[in-house]
Amino acid sequence: MDMKKVINIAVPTSAIVAVVFSVVAFSKTNAATSPEQTPAPTVTALPAGQPVDLTYAAEKSLPSVVYIVNKINSKTQTVEYSDPFEDFFSDPFGGFFGRGQGNGGSRRRQIQTQPRKAAGSGVIISEDGYIVTNNHVVDGADELTVTLNDNKEYSARIIGADATTDLALIKIDGKQLPAIQIANSDNVKVGEWVLAVGNPMGLNNTVTAGIVSAKARSMNTGGVTSMIQTDAAINSGNSGGALVNTRGELIGINAMIYSQTGTNIGYGFAIPTTIMNKVVADIKQYGHVQRAMIGIKGSDVNVYVDNEKEKGNTVDLGTMEGIYVAEVVEDGAAAEAGLQKGDVITHIDGQKIKSFGELQNVIAQKRPGDKITISYLRDKKKKEMTLTLKNEQGNTKVVKNADIDVLGGQFRALSNQQKEQLNVSYGLEVLKVNGGKLKEAGVPKGFIIQRINDKSVKSIEDLQDIVKEASTSKEPVLYIQGIYPTGKKGYFAVPLQND
Q: Which of these is catalytic: 87, 166, 282, 300?
């Protein structure tokens, strides 16, 4: 049965909304395995049909799973609102004679947002305090509190986070912490018993059991498309928790559920440790995930063949497994190596590839500049090529988050007096241009930056976030909109990459 016909809501486990991440939300009123770790004992396989003892796995993994509280403080925000009658009653002829403020009744006021809390789980991966969790568990945090299984509390800081894989690395100051043993998720088998360990619905230190229902499951969430599927109960608050095997070893980070209700109905998904290890290593070494791109668009062969049959076309690709290449991205790694539309990828580095989920799992472990060998069919004839993977910007360089220092300027949020004089509600004034990217682009001292890449710039924090995001995007350019002190509008394009 087609799962899409049964289930239509992806639920990554953080406040229950149409797409729900496994974090429990509250209102105000309401890595690599450590070499010092002791290897788990060998577990002898039981004859088919015999019960499985999961107590060892629970005892082994529970101390390594933590409870995370994300606190978002109250903030003052300036919002615009319209009152079309206010100008009329204060000066009914103002508009006719050219008087009035000329803003169509637009007004500004300050509002105070309510403080919020959200809770999730995390997994200790090293004795010195590194913890892996989901990005959505820690996103936007002003304060992070981590509570261990023994109820000890720590303040945590974010080392790095990646929205695409929905993973984050945080750190607490501790020693000899109970780090989990990490297994290779590639060795996991469909049907083997697993435990989901976390803090669902505020019920701390909870363990649920199930089996691995599928591997390399493709998810249409725009992020990781190679997930471990399990029927172990995963609910709100489980996000960032551990999926472990019967030896208590970590095989995945629990991330989402498929549900029409926001609660578990037997479809849970975890990010494999093969992807987690790569993300953690990149964050530690580069501060940003080095994402390799093969440069193709396509679908699973069986999906392509079925679609063609529905159109009345007969297709024989020589196989019903693999990846049908529907498009080769211009200037990408595949195009440079000579892959063509209509080719069918069957193996990468000798590993059989049956689906896009398996392809994504392999590529997610690579970095730009890495070489891979692709086996493929062209007109049903076997061929092989070696290609060099590229990054999102089309080269093999290390991609790093840029800081606003690269702009070579000094900035200050507009004062209330400046806002009134210029009839604007927000912006950043360029106080000084020392050099750097602003000088190269011709942005002058005194210019008021209001929007960059279609995002409002109300604070230096906004500017920092936009620069970081743009620096690692496919098009590392800042498209700046603003006004001069005279009120004249101005536009600049500021490339962040050096030629």
A: 166
Per-residue pLDDT at 100: 42
Selected catalytic residue, list 239, 259, 375, 471: 239
Residue 112 forms beta bridges with which residues? 76
How many residues does the structure list for the chain?
Answer: 499
Residue 8: closest CA among 306, 237, 267:
267
456: β partners: 451
Please name the residues in contact with 313: beta carbons below 8 A apart, sequence gap of 6 or more.
none
Name residues whose C-beta falls within 8 Å of residue 90's C-beta, 6 or more positions apart in sequence.
none
Q: Is 422 exposed, middle or buried (0-12, 13-18, 19+ CB in 10 A)?
A: middle
186 is catalytic: no
* CA atoms of 305 and 322, how far apart (whole Å): 12
Q: Residues 261-314: pLDDT tens digits?
A: 666 666 889 999 999 999 999 999 988 899 999 999 999 999 999 999 999 999
What are residue 80's DSSP bridge partners?
A: 108
Q: What residue ranges in 218-261 does DSSP mark as E strands? A: 227-230, 242-244, 250-258
Of residues 136, 139, 213, 300, which has the active-site annotation? 136
Token look-up 């995007």 returns: 473
- Specify whether 239 is catalytic: yes
Cβ contact 186:8 at 8 Å: no
Q: How many CA atoms lie within 13 A of 311 on its CB side?
A: 9
Judge whether 166 counts as a catalytic residue: yes
